[in-house]
UniProtKB/TrEMBL annotation:
Keywords: Cytoplasm, Nucleus. Belongs to the actin-binding proteins ADF family. GMF subfamily. This is ADF-H domain-containing protein. GO terms for cellular component: cortical actin cytoskeleton; nucleus. PANTHER family: GLIA MATURATION FACTOR, GLIAL FACTOR NATURATION FACTOR. It comes from Nematostella vectensis (Starlet sea anemone). It is found in: Cytoplasm; Nucleus.
Amino acid sequence: MSQGVKICDVDPELVKNAKKFRLRKEKTNAALIMKIDVEKQVIKEDELHEDISIDDLRDELPEHLPSYVLFSYCYKHDDGRVSYPLCFIFISPQGCKPELQMMYAGSKLNLIKELDATKIFELRSLEELTEDWLKSKLAFFR
């Protein structure tokens, strides 16, 4: 008999840190990486990276485990404007345990709501996480 997947709670400390992250004044890329503590069934902050490129972020993420990332991106528009969209990226690589994928997927919507994220993207492979990919996704929001 299969057991139901419990949707995980969001650590209040993560919500507090995400609000600070959203209001940061720096003009560089930054990433707040989140993960699920499987034993405690809680989504918590894993790492915070300031001034990180998308390539470096890709290198920081686990290749065979799902991840949530809140990414503040320095987006230089074609017309010369600069904006700093806050992107929620859910990475669910193929080949990881189905139970873990289900736990992350089942908890995603609650986390998005708690973080008040509006630009939501999903990937099935870390190799897809490139600057060109992100720019193509953000082009939709112009």
